[in-house]
Amino acid sequence: MDYAILKTGNKQYRVKPGDVIDVEKLPVEEGSSIEFTDVLAISQDGEVTLGTPLVPDASIYAHVREQGKDDKIIVFKYKRKVRYRRKKGHRQHFTRLAITSIRLGDKEIAVLEGTEPHVAAFEETLVGEVEDELTDDVEEGRIDDDLSDELGDDLEDDGADGDLEDETADQDDDIVDGPTSELSSEPEEDAAEGSEGEAAVEGNDGPSGEARGGGDR
What we know:
The protein is of the alpha+beta class. A hairpin with a 2-residue loop joins strand 10 and strand 11. Strands 3, 4, 7, 10 and 11 form a 5-stranded antiparallel beta sheet that branches. A 4-stranded antiparallel beta sheet has the order 2-1-5-6, with no helix packed on it. The chain has 2 domains: about 110 residues, no CATH class; about 40 residues.
């Protein structure tokens, strides 16, 4: 396997075409290409060339995919007996690179074949992340193997989105038609019951009651 050892940001990375790595923030724009000349070693056809400290005429080319921030970490400082407490958060800036080729002089040691380098690297990374999430869900018992297979088939099915939209529309129609008819009938029943109650009250307190009162006198 052909690979190279890249040095950037006081760190070393073993890379080959197609790899996606996060390095310390670099002053470059997203979507641009970048060349690294700090190559410490190169492996070609099983033969390793070591630099002293760098390999002459060696270079690594990469595509800049993203300028972003890492997850937040909490920094807490504490000193006992003096009431010293300090808490703050930190998000490290990074540059995400997709390695495209490794060259030694005018010769290409390794190059990414197929589609555009950043597109291929992105697709490979995305598929790997989805597979890892499904594997974790199966291992933890949140979903079973059969369901995970069905999810994979649904993702590959081109008509899955249309079926989902139709089902959602049918559910919305059921929700709108059902409660509306029930609500519209309830006020009519309440009104009918109210009118009957008023009639009963008028019958008890009206002329018949006065007639009974006159008889008592």
